[in-house]
Amino acid sequence: MSNHNWLRGRTIVYNPSSPLPPSQKQTQTKSSWFTFLKYIFSFLWRMIKGFALFIGLVILFLIFICILFPTRGGQSTSTHLPDSMVLTLKIDGDIPDASGTSQILSLLQIEDSPLTLDDIVNTIDRAAKDHRVKVLVVKASGGGYNLTQLQSIREAILRFRAAGKKTFIFSESYGEGGYGLGIYYLASAFDEIWMQPVGNVAIGGIYMQLPFLKDLMADYGVKAQFFQRKEYKNAMEHLTSDKMSPASRETMESLVTDLASQLIEPIKSARQRISGRFDQLLDQGYLTDKVALKEGLIDQLNYEDIMLSSIQSKFPQTKIVNLGRYSSIYKRSAVESSMLSKEKKVTIAVIPINGMIVSGSAGSSPFAMGDEIAAADDVVSAIESAANNPSVRAIVLRINSPGGSPTASETIHRSILWAKTIKKKRIIVSMAGVAASGGYWVATPADRIYAMNSTLTGSIGVVGGKIDLEGVWNKLHVRWETVKYGQNSGMLSLNTPFSESEQSQFEASLDNIYDYFIQRVAEGRKLSPGQVEKIAKGRAYTGRQAFALGLVDEIGGMDKVLDDLADFNQVTSRDDLTLLYLPATDDPFELFMMMMSDKIGVSGFVEKVSAVLAPIWLLSQGSTAHLIYNHPMIQPY
Question: Mean pLDDT, to the nearest integer, of 474-485?
Answer without folding.
Answer: 91
